[in-house]
Amino acid sequence: MSTTVQTATAQGKKAPRPEVSDRSRAENRLGQKLVLPAIILMLIVTAFPMLRAVWLSVFDYTLTAPDDRNFVGLSNYLTALSDDLFWKTTGMTVLYMLVTVAIELVIGFIFAMVMHRVIFARGVVRTSILIPYGIITVVSGFAWQFAFSYQNGFVNSWLPGIEDSFNWFGDTLPAFIAICVSEIWKTTPFMSLLLLAGLAQVSEDMLEAAKVDGATWWQRLWKVVIPNMRSAIMVAVLFRALDAYRIFDNIFVMTNGAEDTASISFLTYRQTIEQFQLGMGSALSVLLFLSVLLIAFLIIKLFRVDLAAARQE
Amino acid sequence: MKKLGVPLGVLLILVWCLLPVVWIISLSFKSEESITAGNPGFLPGEGTNAGWANYDKVLTDPLYDYFPRAILNSIGISLIATLLSVIVATLAAYAIARLEFKGKKLVLSLALVIAMFPVVSLVGPLFDMWRTFGIYDTWIGLIIPYMSFTLPLAIWTLSAFFREIPWEMEQAAQVDGATSWQAFRKVIVPLAAPGVFTAAILTFFFAWNDFVFGISLTSTEAARPIPASLAFFVGADPFNRPASLLAAAAVISTIPIIIVVLLFQRKIVAGLTSGAVKG
After folding, report:
1. Ranges for the ABC transmembrane type-1 domain (chain A) (predicted)?
2. pLDDT score of A309
3. Which residues in chain B touch residue A28, judged by CB atoms under 8 angstroms apart?
4. Cα angle, residue B85 at apex, residues B157 and B154 outer, rounded to 5°
5. pLDDT score of B275
6. Number of Cβ atoms within 10 Å of the Cβ of A243
7. What ranges do the domains of chain A cover?
8. Which phi and psi (to 5°) does residue B49 adopt?
9. Which of A198, A266, B29, B222 is at a distance of 20 to 30 A from B193, taking alpha carbons?
10. Domain A23-48+56-310 homologous superfamily, CATH
């Protein structure tokens, strides 16, 4: 665990030396100048619209009747929070997150161990692992949707015990599985690359020592490898969990929210863009934002994720 | 057992990563008629291989003229967004890696927050704002959000790379009388080029991939990028997606990704792993 080290100013660290302070002031100014464009750009598209969403969320505002904007206070939030649909969708989203991240962590770890040990065909393995990472999520969604289709797909004929005429998109659970498969396929490589970076940090000496002490392969994995890459695992889980919580593309393409497969992002999109309910949609946007914050906070607190490791301080 | 583990693992990775890609290629050769009638199986059924007909149709048939246009939009928007984002990120990452200044923590924290931001939350207000500014359904209307959302990744990747550069050379240049700015431009830029290039690839992937902004901030083919265009593909039968045509379009849209991956896989992996975790 690294503690935060404040290195804001040269003066704070050591006694100011006249010939340094001029330079450090100039350095300070240059540094701020160089990061300013990035800060402005990041805020323009996030902070400002988010404040606008907060503002819009207290109105009853529909695009089909733009002049008919009424202040309704918190009633949009109350409506959303007292609606079963909102909670069902949130529950579904959490389920997507838990299922996909758990499976990805296991498969990603296996892939990372293989890549860590592989000697031949390195380039081939690297190239293929990057293809799902780079492929358009919508394309992945289509590929899997058609694969699961009983009319033109192959999954039914490949899976033993499944009727050839089985419709994966006719019920919540199979549709949920199909969406998770697409999500997992696409994002496991990213997870495995992050874990690969973590594996590279585990010292070979320690592993050798454990081997000499007679630890089995399984013991070495649990007692040496995993504890030593804890921060890498946690950062990977944090990133993927928040990414999975925002799941949208696959649902849009594969089921369009049918059979109760909608996620909270999908619900928000539908209210805002398809039904022009800017007031209600904005309230949902704010709730979505707050829930992401809450999840990030919980993961960081529960697992004591060392974000400094991710931020490289 | 131990000897077999790694080769088996490699095989597993290859099948996992490539099977869906081979499948979508295979699907793109199934004829349109057979798709409507139902053509199950991994490979096109007996006598239903349409050859290049589907590719020809999505690229030249006036019925699908929005797809070639979407390719143009995607290439244009992604490249411009990448270029601008990388320029801005390079300046910021240089400052973060090299200089001591007030607010360094703020930039990194902000980047972290943005990387985790639920994009859909912004769709409503941006939709509203963009229509007010008159940039709804334009290239610039997509370039701006793409820049903002690729900055965190680009800044991380670049600052990780910049930490590895032998900065003494810059100091040497400064000793020789160059200003900070000159030293940066003349000495560091050539050294930093590989890192910048990697950040550009990752940024391009993000922009090429985006779907949420693509469907919310566009309404016509004027600016609609490939992923959004694919989602609105309609065939002769509105209730039955033209799977084989979609597959052909999907394969076309994947070609640039595959080319980039083939050429630069080593760089991409280095970029992804260096920017994310450091013990």
Report:
1. 90-299
2. 55
3. 99-102
4. 10
5. 53
6. 18
7. 23-48+56-310
8. -80, 115
9. A198
10. MetI-like (1.10.3720.10)
